[in-house]
Design a protein that fits this description.
The complex is a heterodimer. Chain A is an all-beta fold. Chain A has strands at about 5, 10-15, 20-25, 30-40, 40-50, 55, 65-70, 75-80, 85-95, 105, 110. In chain A, strands 2, 4, 5, 6, 9, 10 and 11 form a 7-stranded mixed β-sheet that branches. In chain A, strand 9 (about 85-95) and strand 10 form a beta hairpin. Chain B has strands at about 5, 10-15, 20-25, 30-40, 45-50, 55-60, 60-65, 70-75, 85-95, 100-105, 110-114. The chains are: A mainly beta, B mainly beta. At the A-B interface, strand 4, strand 5, strand 9 and strand 10 of A face strand 4 and strand 5 of B.
């Protein structure tokens, strides 16, 4: 039982390049999320998917797109990377409910030069 | 606008003593609060939570207290151990929102020294 798996773990991009961050969960959760963590900023929600086939913007969606490929997979795409997108990206999954927590992957450290 | 605030970026405590991490929030619609622990190069892991209908929740060495009137919660770790050294994030969820819309504080780096 791997939980939430993110690939890649590290990536360096040049400004203007594109890439897709992959996320998969094996806990049969309906909801999946992408957060970014910047120094001194905590975790901020980029996009989320409450269920297969639906996606919604979070707090900081600009410059990103997402795809909920199926129940297991939720990808985050940077179409034209900018230095401001240098960050650590975390994918999470969870069940909708009153008193449940979200489970996080190990993160992708992205540097845009 | 930061709706969840952790005003202490760091805390240093001697092993065996109590660690108290604080968190304040501004949104009265928050009804569920969580603490996450994060080691370097790892994802956050869930530690403990509390619903707004309670004022205390305990799990082993970890206790979370909620003061709704003050919009304040705290995490107590007793006794503190060197393995507790990590960044601790306070998070909150709004009443009626889906699970993942958690609002996080900026984190407190806890260092437990021998």
């Amino acid at each position: 039982n791997a939980g939430v798996t993110q690939t890649p773990k590290f990536q360096v991009l040049k400004t203007g390049q594109s890439m897709t961050l992959q996320c998969a969960q094996d806990m049969n959760h309906n909801s999946m999320y992408w957060y970014r963590q910047d120094p001194g900023m905590g975790l901020r929600l980029i996009y989320y998917s409450a269920s297969e086939g639906t996606t919604d913007k979070g707090e900081v969606p600009n410059g990103y797109n997402v795809s909920r490929l199926n129940k297991r997979e939720f990808s985050l795409r940077l179409e034209s990377a900018a230095p401001s997108q240098t960050s650590v990206y975390f994918c999470a999954s969870g069940e909708q409910g009153m008193n449940t927590e979200a489970f996080f992957g190990q993160g992708t450290r992205l540097t845009v030069v | 606008d930061q709706q969840v605030k952790q005003n202490s970026p760091s805390l240093s405590v001697q092993e065996g003593r109590i660690s108290i991490l604080n968190c304040d929030y501004t949104n009265s619609m928050f009804d569920y609060f969580l603490w996450y622990k994060k080691y370097p190069a790892e994802g956050p892991t869930f530690l403990i939570s509390i619903s707004s209908i309670k004022d205390k929740n305990e799990d082993g060495r970890f206790t979370v207290f909620l003061n709704k009137s003050a919009k304040h919660l705290s995490l107590h770790i007793v006794p503190s151990q060197p393995g507790d050294s990590a960044v601790y994030f306070c998070a909150a969820r709004r009443r009626g929102s889906t699970l993942g819309r958690l609002y996080f504080g900026r984190g407190t780096q806890l260092t437990v020294w021998p």
